[in-house]
Design goal:
Blueprint: H1 5-14, E1 17-18, H2 21-24, E2 30-31, H3 35-40, H4 44-75, H5 82-88, H6 91-94, H7 97-107, H8 114-121, H9 139-163, H10 167-175, H11 180-191, H12 193-208, H13 212-217, H14 229-239, H15 243-275
Antiparallel strand pairs: 1-2
Helix pairs in contact: 4-9, 4-12, 7-9, 9-12, 12-15, 14-15
Length: 276
């Protein structure tokens, strides 16, 4: 109630008030109803931030899941050094987000970035690419960075799900003549369904509310090309000092995540009912 409930309720109330830098110090909080939300629906940057957030989330989710699934399948096989290497691959998930963001920001920098140096050395490009300052491609390095961070999360959860599948099923399927692909389609995917659904929903929630990564790498620029709902809420509140409008953006983000959270609860409840 203190650390979660009060901030959420205060933010919801703030979204229906007119609070900015001019009246904040005087303590004047005029109730204006849905005016902040009406203004958002006439704000092009807000709609761009919503679109960017969905593009960012879906792009990261697809590649994180596919690569994480492939690595989980690979490390599920018993071979030497499988566990140590899998432990090393957890490093991206354990490194603080801001440290990772700074690291990739330098890697994608125009003049001294290692990415441009590698591409130039291989002859793929003839001049340096402005990864973080070109509004047409600025979202790409941000997505790549978040994919790198999220792969271990997907890999470890999928690995846990794979270990719960009895090996006898694969042995019986092999005796019946089923190949690796058929075993994957008929055994692995059906038995991993609940795990996959939970991973995708949790991944959506974690990715949709990403803030620090984007803020450190691009601050939502250039020209709002990487502006997400989380960064736009911060920009309105603490750069433009439009606290109520920033709260309205945060509340819109909250509503979307609540809907996804309800879907997650229905999935987990359905899985428990099926198990019972």
């Amino acid at each position: 109630l203190v650390f979660v409930g009060y901030p959420i309720m205060h933010n919801i109330i703030l979204g229906f008030q007119d609070v900015e830098v001019m009246n904040f110090l005087r303590g004047q909080k005029h109730f204006i109803g849905f005016d902040n939300y009406v203004q958002l629906f006439h704000d092009e940057v807000f709609f761009k931030s919503v679109a960017n957030t969905f593009v960012f989330t879906v792009s990261c989710l697809v590649f994180q899941f596919l690569i994480g699934f492939a690595l989980a399948m690979f490390f599920n096989r018993k071979f030497s050094f499988a566990k140590p290497v899998r432990g090393i691959l957890m490093m991206p998930w354990m490194i603080p987000m801001t440290v990772t963001a700074l690291m990739f920001k330098f890697m994608f920098s125009t003049k001294v970035g290692v990415i441009n140096n590698i591409l130039t050395g291989l002859g793929i490009i003839s001049k340096n690419i402005e990864w973080l300052t070109n509004q047409g491609i600025a979202m790409i390095p941000v997505i790549i960075t978040n994919i790198w961070i999220g792969i271990p999360f997907n890999m470890i959860l999928i690995s846990t799900g794979l270990t719960s599948i009895p090996g006898e099923l694969y042995e019986s399927a092999a005796i019946d003549g089923a190949g690796p692909f058929q075993q994957f389609i008929r055994i692995t995917l059906p038995l991993m369904r609940a795990t996959i659904e939970s991973i995708l929903v949790l991944g959506f929630i974690y990715t949709f509310k990403v803030y620090d990564l984007v803020y450190v790498m691009t601050s939502g620029g250039p020209v709002n090309s990487t502006q997400l709902m989380s960064t736009y809420s911060y920009k309105l509140s603490f750069n433009n000092f439009l606290y109520s409008k920033g709260s309205a953006v945060a509340n819109a983000l909250l509503v979307i995540l609540l809907l996804v959270g309800i879907v997650y609860l229905r999935i987990t409840t359905r899985g428990e009912d099926a198990y019972e």
